Each structure stands twice: as structure tokens, then as C-alpha cells.
């Protein structure tokens, strides 16, 4: 097993990527004046993202995979905010959204504009590049440090009762005779 893929480190790396993704979406949403989704909704988005990211993190996450996770996290935040949040329309007025019917979705129904899409993709690309570089550095550092030395504890076993007899039988017969002779 490679060092960077130990279960605890995989979980930590996955959590950081998912939380970065959701955090980027929340910051963008707050910056644009949008309402934030509830904590329970964000937790659901995080869990839905965390499951596949844990599988991805068996090895170093590629820039393309990091980009996909970052875009999906931001999209999850945006869509979860649409289920009751308020967005600013093109004229600057706030209006409430409810989740549109799947077949009748237009970019305006989702609160999307070309500038917003470009901003989300640019942030996701920059964060994916940083993430990829960070993973390279982490894996290089872990390879250089080598596997952690874990002490191996053993329990000393008591020798079997026949051990003394076996040792005595291997002695030379002369020494054995001397050992049995009465003291002189």
C-alpha cells in the first residue's frame, strides 16, 4: 500500500477536497448576494460528494477529477440554494426560486448567467491546479519520509519443558560425565 493512500489520509484528503468545493460555492453565492442553503442541505451535498471522492482518492487525484469534484460541489451548492433561496435577477431585483421541472429548465430558471458560469469554471480550474500541485507535493513528501516505523511488540514465550533435556543431550559425553561426577 502506498503511504498516501492509507485510510485515514484518504479520508482527510477527500474531506478537504469536498469542503473546498462546497466552500468555493458558498463564497461565490455569498459574494453574488444569494441566499445560503441550510446546514442539513449542505451536509447532504457533502456526503453525496464524499462517497465517490473516497474512491477517487485511492491514488493521487488527477487535475481533471479535482476539477469535476469542484464543479459538482459548486453546482450542488447552487442547486440546493435554489430550493428556497433568493437570487438577484439581471435587473438587480431579488426573486424567489423553486426547483423547476426537469424538462422545462432554462439557464435563467437556474439563475445562471454567462459571467457566473465563467467565474465558477475559472475558480474551479484554479483550485484544481492548486489541488493537483498539493497532491504532488504531499505524495513526494510521503515517499521521501518512507513508511512510518511501527514498533512490533512480541510476547516472550517460555521454552518448552524438554528444552533443557535437548540442550543436555547435545553436550559432549565427557562434559556430560563431568557434570554428573561428584565433586572432587
TrEMBL record:
<keyword id="KW-1133">Transmembrane helix</keyword>
<feature type="transmembrane region" description="Helical">
    <location>
        <begin position="112"/>
        <end position="131"/>
    </location>
</feature>
<feature type="transmembrane region" description="Helical">
    <location>
        <begin position="61"/>
        <end position="81"/>
    </location>
</feature>
<feature type="transmembrane region" description="Helical">
    <location>
        <begin position="12"/>
        <end position="29"/>
    </location>
</feature>
<keyword id="KW-0812">Transmembrane</keyword>
<keyword id="KW-0472">Membrane</keyword>
<protein>
    <submittedName>
        <fullName>Uncharacterized protein</fullName>
    </submittedName>
</protein>
<feature type="transmembrane region" description="Helical">
    <location>
        <begin position="35"/>
        <end position="54"/>
    </location>
</feature>
Amino acid at each position: 500500500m502506498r503511504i498516501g493512500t492509507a485510510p485515514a489520509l484518504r479520508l482527510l484528503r477527500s474531506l478537504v477536497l469536498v469542503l473546498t468545493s462546497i466552500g468555493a460555492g458558498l463564497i461565490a453565492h455569498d459574494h453574488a448576494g444569494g441566499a445560503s442553503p441550510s446546514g442539513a442541505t449542505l451536509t447532504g451535498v457533502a456526503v453525496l460528494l464524499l462517497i465517490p471522492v473516497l474512491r477517487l482518492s485511492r491514488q493521487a487525484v488527477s487535475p481533471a477529477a479535482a476539477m469535476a469534484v469542484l464543479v459538482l460541489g459548486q453546482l450542488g451548492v447552487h442547486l440546493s440554494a435554489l430550493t428556497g433561496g433568493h437570487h438577484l435577477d439581471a435587473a438587480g431585483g431579488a426573486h424567489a426560486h423553486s426547483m423547476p421541472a426537469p424538462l422545462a429548465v432554462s439557464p435563467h430558471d437556474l439563475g445562471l448567467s454567462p459571467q457566473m458560469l465563467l467565474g465558477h469554471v475559472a475558480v474551479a480550474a484554479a483550485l484544481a491546479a492548486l489541488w493537483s500541485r498539493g497532491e504532488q507535493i504531499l505524495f513526494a513528501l510521503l515517499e521521501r519520509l518512507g513508511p512510518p516505523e511501527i514498533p512490533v511488540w512480541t510476547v516472550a514465550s517460555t521454552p518448552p519443558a524438554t528444552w533443557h533435556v535437548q540442550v543436555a543431550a547435545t553436550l559432549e559425553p565427557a562434559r556430560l560425565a563431568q557434570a554428573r561426577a561428584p565433586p572432587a
